[in-house]
Design goal:
Four copies of one chain form a homotetramer. By secondary structure, chain A is α+β, with helices and mostly antiparallel strands. Chain A has one domain: Thiol Ester Dehydrase, Chain A. Chain A is built from three helices and eight strands; from the N terminus they run H-H-E-E-E-E-H-E-E-E-E. The interface between A and B is large, with 36 and 36 residues.
């Protein structure tokens, strides 16, 4: 079971992650097996070609993974990303983006997960795929 | 010699990359051998721990690499990131961030570079290191 | 349907991929949706700690992805890896290794897939996870 | 100063890294600031197109990084790779390969470095570029 509630995470994000607020991030589902996070579209997401800018997708993937890590270890705010690798596969049209993050390995020191990114209106086509590693501070 | 001027890039960013504007990105040097870009600090950059949020650094690295690609191929706005890998090495304090992007290989279809990220006030200590690949559309 | 048969691939590997032979690689299943490849254990796989050396897993992941690409594009031997990212999650014990490769996106110029690696005797526990991109030459 | 001598590393490799022996790896220079390792060419390195197979370069990069880590922490054999990311930039001709590994950050728990790969007879042209992270066990 998640060691942090969806409400707790959204509160933490509202107070402590201003960047997530700029990006319109909303946690929709929080579970140790899967996290679902939305980036609510606004026009600042666009880049030339009329598609969503890469940094939006990277920020969304990173934040979804952060929620997944906290689901496993509790409200350890100081968990930090040590690496992130992302492949951009298709050019998503303007609109909300969804990230689904799942654990690959949750260790004592490192947590690794993968994140699939979708357009909210086409949730069967992966538009980007990331893997990310978080470092969990000793407690 | 760069196929796009610093002014041209900043104009393109101002008109077509709203996300770069949100992040306070400013291109400071544009050359085929090296691009220097700044992310001008504002409080939305912070994350728990009082350090700069990962997405800020990822967005800065990606934009610096975009400028490097355009320096090589000209104003091909539709060049897009296909992959980005980043290692976060140290926790930068609040303040401006600098990215230095350099080419590893500029091919006809793919351009690959690496990007070192620094705090503006400590430009000898790399705080994050990224490699990124851009796809260059056929012209 | 795969554009190359399992026998064709194994023949190509036997004749043209001596490194795959050194590693005891055997293609077990070849499909456009999934490739299953085995690295048949020998003592050269070991590293300190009694676990399988990273290069064995990287070579296996790369070869499985190569087979997946050829399943999609046919016997285009000159398809080459442009990038590979791997996370080592757990230390596999001595024994055969299995790679399952699946497509993330097969484009005209680039093919991207992910590869999960298992110990053959514990095929429900991912020990390493890779994503790889191949470049497909113009034909 | 390096906490392990070049001879110590080569002895460890000879006794404990059979895969490195298969690949003809030889440590040529060992320093906390830079490690230089050679993969002595044999015909098993080749892949279709007459170039060096990717797994050879990945194995060489990983081993060079291992030597760099031991230079910093001493003969901690159980240091293991947690992730490796590699971009293949150019197709090296048949011949010895050289890896130059340099530290990006050596922490207590994680060591991160980058590795440039060259053909031995053209050491000014990077043919592949990797970053790798090692986990250092508590002692």
């Amino acid at each position: 079971m998640s060691k942090i509630s969806l409400e707790q995470f959204n509160e933490l994000a509202a107070e402590r992650l201003p960047f997530a607020q700029l990006m319109g991030l909303e946690l929709e589902q929080l579970d140790v097996a899967e996290v679902r996070m939305r980036a609510r579209y606004n026009d600042s997401f666009l880049r030339p070609g009329g598609t969503i800018a890469g940094p939006v997708m990277m920020g969304l993937a990173d934040a979804a993974m952060y929620a997944l890590v906290l689901a496993h270890v509790g409200p350890v705010e100081l968990a930090v990303t040590t690496s992130l690798n992302i492949n951009f596969l298709r050019k998503p049209a303007a609109g909300d983006m969804i990230a689904l993050a799942r654990p690959l390995k949750i260790g004592k020191r490192l947590a690794i997960g993968d994140v699939a990114l979708y357009s909210a209106n086409a949730d069967d086509i992966v538009v980007a795929h990331a893997t990310a590693t978080y470092s969990i501070p000793p407690q």
